């Protein structure tokens, strides 16, 4: 062995055996390399065509489309430029590998029906609403952008979809995409009336009043009833400085979420300016909400063409009075409302109508009857005062009655000889008018020689039995006097003068009247 090595080291040629062995090794190496390259670069389509669901993400990974060796997969790419991922159709996909390019049909299809998402609340609509599909569903989800949502005409009552009547209903709705996939759903809903405000007028408030404006506004709902406590106002704290004007928005929402909003104006006036608007009937309790006025119940002045019409207009100020005597009989007379407070109504009549009684029956023009308490009498003039508690009458009764309009400035200007048209009306105890009578002022103040040493007002109204205690008005509705007596021969009619009515009332009641 040592000799052989030495010989080789001395430059002898390799043996044939060594050459053969080396050649075989090289051939095996080359063959292995070729086989490895073929295996690593191999690629073929997994299938002849590919089908994909619209809306799902389209893969750009070559491994999803071809069977390939490592190198082919590593350096392969997918060309999706020819595919519109938003639209169904047959397209072509291209996969490129080292030394190879594949093309295959790529079918984008839609087999999924639209998904209808509903609201997570009960649905309610105001009567008169014409429903659309978007009113009943929150949204519709589908990969197809071309989705039609519509009512199933064969399953729905057209009138129900117009919300003609209140009640509970249901509607069939369909959603259909361009591939013909459909989803149907039945959606229940309720038709209700939105809440209503009882009275929405402009508000007039006297400067300096610190009132909660919300308590003057009421709202009701057919289903929920009184919703007055649910009313909100914007702005919540309006400016109440004299002379300011503010737009107020009142909103109320019922249990179904139906909302009603009303907008009115708020005017802040001095008490005197506010009372002047009431006197001239620029504002009334019918066309305005009046807060903090000196006498918001004042019936004010009328601009009628006739005294007959005025007597109709002042009916909320007049009453009928019945007194039951101890003998079992009863007498009747008239009276009028001179003052209204937060708790009571004050009525003036003749002393001789109530005599010495402490109680009497009062009937208003509404036919409502209630007991009245006689507060007292005048020591000089035939005047008595009766008080009625508002709590004994229907709720909000003060909204429909008024006080007589007293204008001392006008009274002081009247002169004997002025043709002042006068009239009075007398009711029965059921609230109907028994008779009207009209005439002229004869004398503002005159002695009644045969009856009393005091000065009385004379007129020619042809008074009748039962007219005692009636308010006598002029054509504008101003209180002029109160009827108390008449004579047949000579034929003369007498009344308590306005100043004496005021003086007697304030003395008996302890209240102070506001007069113009």
Question: Which helices and strands occur, and which strands form pairs?
Answer:
Elements: H1 2-9, H2 16-41, E1 43-45, E2 50-53, E3 66-68, H3 70-74, E4 77-79, E5 89-97, E6 100-109, E7 115-118, E8 124-126, H4 133-136, E9 137-141, E10 147-151, H5 158-161, E11 167-177, E12 182-192, E13 196-197, E14 202-206, E15 219-221, E16 225-226, E17 232-234, E18 245-253, E19 259-269, H6 271-279, E20 288-291, H7 307-313, E21 318-324, E22 330-340, E23 344-349, H8 351-354, E24 359-364, E25 369-377, E26 384-389, H9 408-413, E27 421-427, E28 433-448, E29 452-459, E30 471-474, E31 479-487, E32 492-497, H10 498-509
Parallel strand pairs: 2-6, 8-12, 14-19, 14-20
Antiparallel strand pairs: 1-3, 4-5, 5-6, 7-9, 10-11, 11-12, 13-15, 15-16, 17-18, 18-19, 21-22, 21-24, 22-23, 23-26, 24-25, 25-26, 27-28, 27-30, 28-29, 29-32, 30-31, 31-32
Task: Describe this protein with a few key phrases.
516 residues, alpha+beta, Immunoglobulin-like, 4 domains, 32 strands, disordered N terminus
Distance between the ends: 153 Å
Number of strands: 32
Give the C-level CATH assignment of the largest domain.
Answer: Mainly Beta
CATH architecture of the largest domain: Beta Barrel
Portion in helices: 10-25%
* Average predicted confidence as pLDDT: 91
Biggest β-sheet description: 6 strands, antiparallel, barrel
Which percent band covers the strand fraction?
35-45%
């Amino acid at each position: 062995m040592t000799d052989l090595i030495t010989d080789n080291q001395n430059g002898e040629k390799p043996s044939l055996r060594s050459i053969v062995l080396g050649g075989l090794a090289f051939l095996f190496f080359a063959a292995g390399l070729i086989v490895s390259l073929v295996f690593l670069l191999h690629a073929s389509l997994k299938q002849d065509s590919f089908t994909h669901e619209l809306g799902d993400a389209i893969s750009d990974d070559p491994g999803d489309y071809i069977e390939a060796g490592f190198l082919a997969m590593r350096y392969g790419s997918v060309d999706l430029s020819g595919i519109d991922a938003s639209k169904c159709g047959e397209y072509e996909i291209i996969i490129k590998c080292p030394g190879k390019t594949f093309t295959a049909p790529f079918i984008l299809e839609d087999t999924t029906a639209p998904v209808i998402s509903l609201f997570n609340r009960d649905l309610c609509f105001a009567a008169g609403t014409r429903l659309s599909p978007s009113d009943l569903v929150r949204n519709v989800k589908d990969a197809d952008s071309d989705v039609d949502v519509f009512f199933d005409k064969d399953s729905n009552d057209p009138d129900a979809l117009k919300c003609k009547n209140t009640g509970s209903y249901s509607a069939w709705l369909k959603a259909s995409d361009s591939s013909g996939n459909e989803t149907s759903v039945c959606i229940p809903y309720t038709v209700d009336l939105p809440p209503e405000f009882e009275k929405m007028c402009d508000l007039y408030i006297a400067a300096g009043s610190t009132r909660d404006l919300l308590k003057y506004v009421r709202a009701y709902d057919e289903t929920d009833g009184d919703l007055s406590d649910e009313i909100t106002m914007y702005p919540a704290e309006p400016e109440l400085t004299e002379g300011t004007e503010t737009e107020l928005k009142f909103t109320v929402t019922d249990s179904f979420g139906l909302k009603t909003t009303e907008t009115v104006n708020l005017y802040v006036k001095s008490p005197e300016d506010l009372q002047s608007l009431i006197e001239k009937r620029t504002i009334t309790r019918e066309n305005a909400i009046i807060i903090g006025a000196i006498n918001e119940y004042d019936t004010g002045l009328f601009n009628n063409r006739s005294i007959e019409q005025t007597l109709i207009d002042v009916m909320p100020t007049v009453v009928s009075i019945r007194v039951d005597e101890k003998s079992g009989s009863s007498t009747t007379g008239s009276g009028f409302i001179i003052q209204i407070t937060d708790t009571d109504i004050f009525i003036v009549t003749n002393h001789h109508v109530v005599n010495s009684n402490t109680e009497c029956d009062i009937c208003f023009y509404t036919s409502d009857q209630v007991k009245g308490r006689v507060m007292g009498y005048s020591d000089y003039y035939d005047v008595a005062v009766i008080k009625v508690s508002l709590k004994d009458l229907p709720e909000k009764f003060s909204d429909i009655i008024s006080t007589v309009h007293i204008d001392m400035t006008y009274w002081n200007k009247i002169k004997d000889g002025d043709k002042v048209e006068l009239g009075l009306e007398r009711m029965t105890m059921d609230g109907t008018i028994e008779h009207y009578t009209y005439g002229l002022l004869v004398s503002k103040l005159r002695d009644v020689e045969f009856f009393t040493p005091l000065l009385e007002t004379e007129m020619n109204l042809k008074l009748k039995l039962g007219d005692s205690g009636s308010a006598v008005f002029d054509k504008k509705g101003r209180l002029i006097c109160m009827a108390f007596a008449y004579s047949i021969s000579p034929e003369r009619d007498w009344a308590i003068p306005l100043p004496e009515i005021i003086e007697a009332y304030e003395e008996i009641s302890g209240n102070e009247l506001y007069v113009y």
